[in-house]
Amino acid sequence: EPAVLYDIGGKFDKGFNEGAFNGMEKFKKDTGLAYREFEIQNDAQREQALRNFAKKGNSPIIAIGFSQAAAVEKVAKEFPDVKFAIVDMVVELPNVRSIVFKEQEGSYLVGLLAAKASKTGKIGFVGGMDIPLIRRFACGYVQGAKSVNPNIEVFQNMTGTTGAAWNDPVKGGELAVSQIERGADVVYHAAGATGLGVLQKTAEKGKLGIGVDSNQDGIYPGKVLTSMMKRVDVATYNAAMDVKNGKWSAGFNVLGLKEAGVAYAYDDFNKALITAEMKTAADTAQADIIAGKIQVHDYMSDKACPF
Amino acid sequence: MTHPDARQFQTSMVDGEHQSRPMPAIELVGIDKRFGPIHANRAIDLVIEKGTIHGIVGENGAGKSTLMSILYGFYQADRGKILVDGQEVAIASSQDAIRHGIGMVHQQFMLVETFTVLENIILGAEGDPLIGKAEKRARALLKRLAQDYNLKVDPDAVVSTLSVGEQQRVEILKALFRGAETLILDEPTAVLTPAEADHLFRILAQLRDEGKTVLLITHKLREIMAITDTVSVMRHGEMVVTWPTREASVERIAEAMVGRRVLLQVAKGPSLPGRALLSVDHLTVKDPRGVIVVDDASFEVRAGEIVGIAGVAGNGQSELIEAIAGIRAASTGRVSLHGKDISGEDPATLRDLGLAHLPEDRQKVGLVLPFDGYENVILGYQDDPTFSSGFLLNRKAIASMAKTLFAGYDVRPGNPGLRAALFSGGNQQKIVCAREIERDPSVLLVGQPTRGVDIGAIEFIHKRLIDLRDRGKAILLVSAELDEIRGLADRILVMCGGRIVGECLPDRPESDIGMMMAGIADLSGREATRFDR
Amino acid sequence: MDTVFDSLIPVLGSSVRLSIPLLFACFAGLFSERAGIVDIGLEGKMLAGAFAAGAIAHHAGNPWAGLLAAMGIAMLLSLVHGFASITHRGNQIVSGVAINFLAAGLTALLGQAWYGEGGRTPQLPNTARFLEITWPGAETARASYGEIGNFYANVISGHSILVYAAFLMVPLTWWVLYRTRFGLRLRAVGENPHAVDTAGISVGRLRYLAVLVAGVLCGIGGSYLAIAQSGGFVKDMTAGKGFIALAALVFAKWRPFSAMATCLLFGFLDAAGSRLQGTPLPFIGQVPVQVFQALPYVLTVILLAGFIGKAIPPKAAGVPYTKDR
Amino acid sequence: MSAPARELPWLVEFFLLPALNLAAAFLVAGLVVLAIGENPLSVGKIMLYGALGNAEGIGYTLYYATNFMFTGLSVAVAYHAGLFNIGPEGQATFAGIGVAIVCLAFDGAPWWLVAPFAVAASVIFGAAWAFIPAWLQARRGSHIVITTIMFNFLAATLIVYLLVNVMGKPGSMAVETKTLSDVTRLPLFSTFMKTYGINLGDAPLNGTFLLAILASIGVWLLIWHTRLGFEIRTVGTNPQAAAYAGIDPTRIVIIAMLISGGLSGLLAVNEVMSVQGRLVEDVAQGAGFVGIAVALMGRAHPIGIALAAFLFGVLYQGGAELSFDTPKITRDMIVVIQALVILFAGALGHMFRPGLERVFARRGS
Ligand SMILES: Nc1ncnc2c1ncn2[C@@H]1O[C@H](COP(=O)(O)OP(=O)(O)OP(=O)(O)O)[C@@H](O)[C@H]1O
Ligand SMILES: Nc1ncnc2c1ncn2[C@@H]1O[C@H](COP(=O)(O)OP(=O)(O)OP(=O)(O)O)[C@@H](O)[C@H]1O
Ligand SMILES: [Mg+2]
Ligand SMILES: [Mg+2]
Question: Is the C-alpha dihedral spanning B505, B509, B512, B514 positive or negative?
Fold first, then answer.
């Protein structure tokens, strides 16, 4: 049976851990098979948990989050016959599938939509913890926005520099308010539970928010422009299914727009907010990115954002 | 008052023939109290007549404070009953005691130091949920009492800025504000100057004459003789005897307290002073607020003499000693030991040079109460090579030293493994004395060596100090007890307002010295300044 | 780039909002420590309060019910603290640590057990929250009275009722402490419990009252976080505010008006830090985010060291009261 | 930790009383377990078996206890000097930076060569982070509880800055340095315990455990058998007496805090040089706060600290096993159990004392 190891944020973080959880739940529903899971409490438990799973014969063992890389690398070497997967990080071993997302591509699209929806020519971004991954979101967003309006002003704030930054909706809300007071009328968050505060304040102030990771349009219907969905659920579901169906492959698994690993949300909740013109523009951009006509800059490639 | 000692005492306002009708204000019947293994009060019976001053004496740890605290509801007796005005009453808390008209001035003052006098007085007796009215009432009362009893204190002064005597007045005012009919005072004069004590006794007598009852605990037998109507003696938790004071004498009381005859005055030979071991030149000390507390003091202490410093508490004696001992920084002037300048040296260095210091507050300064006897025996001497081998402490050497000192000073119980807090006051003082005296220092600074110490222990400590002198050492003694200074010192310096205002020999009449202490007479030829804080 | 002045007013508004939880926690600490009970469990009590507020406001659909529940649960934890440190004379710091752990664990545990959202309580509709109150004329003022109007609209108007309650609490606390019997006794018991005892007042009862008041205030602070500032409880949402409040208390030397000033200062630093983050500063250029994050802490340390002098706590704070020697 | 009013027989004082306290804690914890629909007895069995039932479990338990011993000793040394060091978390974090610098500089060199430098770096960095609060306390009278709390926040901010911008693993978004090569990492006991037929499994127990025991002995000697210890305790119990005895409080406050910080720093050797093999964002993982409870429950005495650290090791390891086995019992449940232990064995530690005193005093007198 498959096993999943969540990162320190926990499985109900309304973000990528929860995405993994949803993927596994779907797997359970579709196949009727059980799965095992563990939420770590401290770093020392990463290896402990992975080994525990491996010894009990779980496969695949899916580790969520870049922080698990070192542990996966170590344990995967010890158990070469067990199949591992890791999300958001690359571990180059023959029995590990590394699943990474091109968050910049999805962010580009929501940036484009934000710029189109903005009346003030000013938009905002609220990140969680200040790490390269989040700057990758920010950079794609800015690039997308500038593709519509080169003069657009994008306010960027990070909530904090420690893990607590993922879990501070109050601070998130204040950052959003501060951006709104500077004129922003669309604010995108990539900040886990902190983002709930962002969405709440944008809704309260009559502005638009943009969700992240899962589809968050429904949290404040009509007040959330769209969500940048990162399909961790699909990735984990696939990993589990692949093993079950004997189609497992190790190696790199980069999920961008092309692979439907990232996407912008369009549903009943935000239909009214996204005009046909906006939708066309977004879809065109998506096609262009998939076709390689638009290169979305990856912050991680040079640790810099040229925009 | 017919006793000869009483006549000598300055307080002559007491009318010894005060007639007391036998109407007990308080009756204690079979009061028994244990603290774990300690039997502090053993089946005590005591009758206190209304409108009298009733003295209670006893050695340290005899159980006086415990008994009074039971009466005041601070502790509960294990057995026994309390009658107030002939009625048996249950006193389960101080609130009950207050309700029955009992007030108490504790040995350790129970004041909130950061509060004003007014706030302290109304605390617990506010009446209203708001304190405004109570403050007004207290202010009015203070004004009245200031006139009636000459009980003056500034109602808006913060208590921590008051002198000890003033703080005590606040305690009394507190009791009076609560309408106390019976007032218990636990060693009220231990920290007072003769003049302040005098003042206090005048107030007590006046209260008694107004029909109030006063219970007075003290170690000073002369005070008992001077102002009480009745005296009770306690020993080892028991009430040994109660006499009308006029039938008692200092000697009889002392004997009842200790259970044997005691020498009240230690015999000492004439002093044979040698060269100066300690000299102080133009020493000036400022307190942290910049106020001058020792003003240009100069004097010498020679080998083989005891120099006593007399003065009303708070006139710079403590600061002077502390400055010499290196605990307090002097702002100008110089101190030399054996002719060597030691100004600014720290206490550890000074000890190495042979300067020992018996501090006036043994519990807060001289001992670390949670430490055991062994550790307290090396306090201050922890760097002495005999007590350490390299980094480590030499436990054997420390143990043998402790054993010697405990045996030599008859510290009871004689077990240095006990925490210092477990020893009674007298025994604690013996430990500190043993440590400082037996190091055989060439100069010893002594502050209040027998404050709150019982007669037996006083006798012992005085003997040791004289022994040390006779071995050719120099001793500088500060004491609030003029008697003690006159009994021990070979030469007396008088301090007032931070200055040394006079010098005299111990046979000088007490009243002369008292005048100097008050800053009225100036025998040094300099203008005496009143010391205002 | 807008001028510093343009952004000052929004920052001030934000400062006010951010300082409120600190203010409640700080005053909770003030009551407790003035009575001689050190309380590092402010954080936990506020957290538990926030959880209760979020949960009950959700079920009752009413913020007041949430507020009451928050005060109730925080008072319950206060009683635990009191039981350990007053009745049984336990170590107050340990008791506080235990309460912090307990609150962190239980809120997450119960939140997960009841709502299955990872310890979050369900997102609240506006009817179940304390909403911002716009004062009369705020919008016209903003539009037509320049900076002053802007100040009125942004800083004075537009906060939830709990914000105004917090500022009302300041003079009220002062009045209670210095003008009432309760306050007099409270201050006395923190300085010299023996004096209080011999005055015939129960030390234990007073201290219990004080920690209960602390509980009430922590409960309000928690409610503010969960149902005024946000639309529900989030795991660990106090994020160290209880500790910062404690720092503010020391900083303010246990005095009400200074405490308010300090909390506002901390709120301002937080708000200004967020606002300045990412904007290049004149002469210095781009500054790492961490600098702004660290700013309040660094400033606290510097101010503690350099300007306020020695902060002397209530003398009996942290010391269990015994009659024995 | 207020001084006991009366003396109890030491067997009662040091064994019966703590045992009763723990029993109370587990009783209440059992009720919570019952409330979420699990059987407390089987839960207890799983925890105990997981923590102590096999060599691997014991290895994990001792690994956790190692960290708690360091932070517990750290808090205790400061406590003896009358200082409340709330900062072991930050001190260990900063020490982590030092250990990482050393280990990365010598990466590839054998561990026994690097170890002395790493240990030195951990102590120096840990002490350095404690120095500023210590100096501020000694010289400026700043409240050390507050400054050490602030320094915890500052260390957390600083390490993230360094990991993201300076020391981070190139090309990775994880907030960590690269992993040390195996030769440089302090080897685990499991590798050579196998030769003695003991299978520690994958338990991360390593040489720092011995270091913790040495540190305990060292602290014991220091506090009760050296001049410095005497001076530290004197300053901590009675500053006035210390001044009278010629002990410089500034010097003692600073020295005690340096030692305290150094002890916390040693935790970083365990984490960075051995268990993690790299510097991660969260070096101490809360051990700093557990250390406060450990020190106070252990009455600031190394033996008590060792026992309390072991107890918390059991809770951590047993708790992890428990949540593997019993999905209903989440990690938050473990936090609750810890809280109850701290509450009953720490803060309510005197709850049963009056009763015991009554029982034993009657027999004693
Ligand atoms: N608080 C306490 N706890 C435990 N034991 C105590 C305590 N106070 C005193 N003791 C011990 O109880 C015994 C009786 O003490 P007490 O004060 O009555 O002594 P004492 O003989 O009157 O001494 P001295 O006359 O020298 O003051 C002594 O052995 C003392 O060490
Ligand atoms: N709270 C207490 N706990 C334990 N022992 C106590 C306590 N109070 C007093 N004792 C002990 O009871 C005995 C009587 O003490 P008490 O204070 O009544 O003596 P005292 O006659 O007032 O002595 P002193 O003249 O020194 O004031 C002493 O041995 C003392 O140590
Ligand atoms: Mg005695
Ligand atoms: Mg007494």
Answer: positive
